[in-house]
Amino acid sequence: MLNIQNLDLKSEIVQLLEGALDLSEEAKQVLTECIPIVTFPKGHILLREGQVSNESFFNIEGLVRKYYMVDGEEKTTEFYIENDAISSLQSYNLKIPSNHYLECIEESRLAILSRERERELFEKVPGFESLCRVTIEEELGAYQDKQAQFMMSNPEKRYTDLMQNSPELLQRVPQYHLASYLGIKPESLSRIRKRITNR
Amino acid sequence: MLNIQNLDLKSEIVQLLEGALDLSEEAKQVLTECIPIVTFPKGHILLREGQVSNESFFNIEGLVRKYYMVDGEEKTTEFYIENDAISSLQSYNLKIPSNHYLECIEESRLAILSRERERELFEKVPGFESLCRVTIEEELGAYQDKQAQFMMSNPEKRYTDLMQNSPELLQRVPQYHLASYLGIKPESLSRIRKRITNR
């Protein structure tokens, strides 16, 4: 039974990467061993404020949010869906306590890359560090655009952008998290939704 | 005369990197050849909307801003000071037309890394790709935090954060660019400044 599970896990993480990398059997083995896939229940906290982040995640299935506690209130600033990388890089890079939380708001199946394993993979899997560089560069590019769009928009524009770009997110995320993400009260989100429906 | 200039340029780019990399003489030569340093006049446009970005910059001395044209109005979303990397990664990575401009708002001395040269450097300078990965990871970490702070703040909070974190920027940036960056009209910025001074 364990063997079959291992085979499944192996094929999943290897399947994710073999399109991008030319993997030897040894590399496949190392990847399978070094990048475990774990299913976390809904409500599980992956990282707490004050904790140092020692791992990054890749969302295979599920939904994770990032939030800050500000004067006793949760402020959601990010949602991570399937195929999103989930990282808290200021804490991870500088080894300083995180200033935010990461929470699974659906049951989530995540690939986990820890600090120690990362180094091992860079050494043992040819091309893996290059792939990470390219992936992070793409992520930074997406961030640069997203931040600029956010700066130039207002809550209603942000909501209609979400409708256009991430309609499935609107179905999956509870309204109070969504309002927090848009920087408004749930009542204001209701008003925006009504205005849009009535157009 | 040219030789002396070349020596100066060589030492500058090599000085920047030799703290982080163990550089052979050959590597120093390649770095000097592949990463030219150019002084651009105030007002020079490094990248235009519609152009594909084929290079990234590193700000050695000067001030660059990123702006979008929205309904005929310039919206500034970023300032780059000394030691900042300047990149338009969505355009660079995906080879799509840029949706924004990059402009030198002071005379600026920038190191230029082009797409073709990057590949050459990764091949010829051991450790250079690793250094780029780490640098981009750090930049992404700073972005993640900055974006979250921006989402949770208002223009006055953003202004006082700038006063605290980048006081020299407030001295160097024209007020109308600063107001645009904060997402407000110049009159509102004047009111915020007055309020803060009167406290």
Description:
Helix content of chain A is 53%, strand content 21%. Chain A is an alpha+beta fold. In chain A, the strands form two sheets. In chain A, strands 1-8-3-6 form a four-stranded antiparallel β-sheet. Chain A has a four-stranded antiparallel β-sheet with strand order 2-7-4-5. In chain A, β4 and β5 form a beta hairpin. In chain A, α1 crosses α2 (25-34) and α2 (25-34) packs antiparallel against α4. Chain A is elongated and about 60 Å long. The A-B interface holds A 66, 68, 70, 75, 77-78, 87-90, 92-94, 99-100, 122, 129-130, 132-134, 136-148, 150-152, 181, 183 and B 66, 68, 70, 75, 77-78, 87-90, 92-94, 99-100, 122, 129-130, 132-134, 136-148, 150-152, 181, 183.
Tell me briefly what this model is:
The structure is a homodimer of 199-residue chains. With 199 residues, chain A is of the alpha+beta class.
* CATH C-level class of chain A: Mainly Beta
Helical stretch tally of chain A: 9
CATH architecture descriptor name of chain A: Sandwich
Q: How would you name the oligomeric state of the polypeptide chains in this document?
A: homodimer
Strand order of the largest sheet of chain A: 1-8-3-6
Number of E-type strands of chain A: 8
Helical content of chain A stands at 40-55%
Largest beta sheet of chain A, briefly? 4 strands, antiparallel
SSE-based structural type of chain A: alpha+beta
Radius of gyration of chain A, in angstroms, nearest whole number:
19 Å
What count of structural domains of chain A? 1
Q: Could you list the spans of chain A in which at least 5 consecutive residues all have pLDDT below 50?
A: 1-7
**Biggest interface pair, counts:** A-B, 39 and 39 residues
The percent range for strand residues of chain A is 15-25%
N-to-C SSE series of chain A? HHEEEEEEHEEHHHHHH
Mean pLDDT of chain A: 91
Terminal CA distance of chain A reads 56 Å
CATH H level of chain A: which superfamily? Jelly Rolls
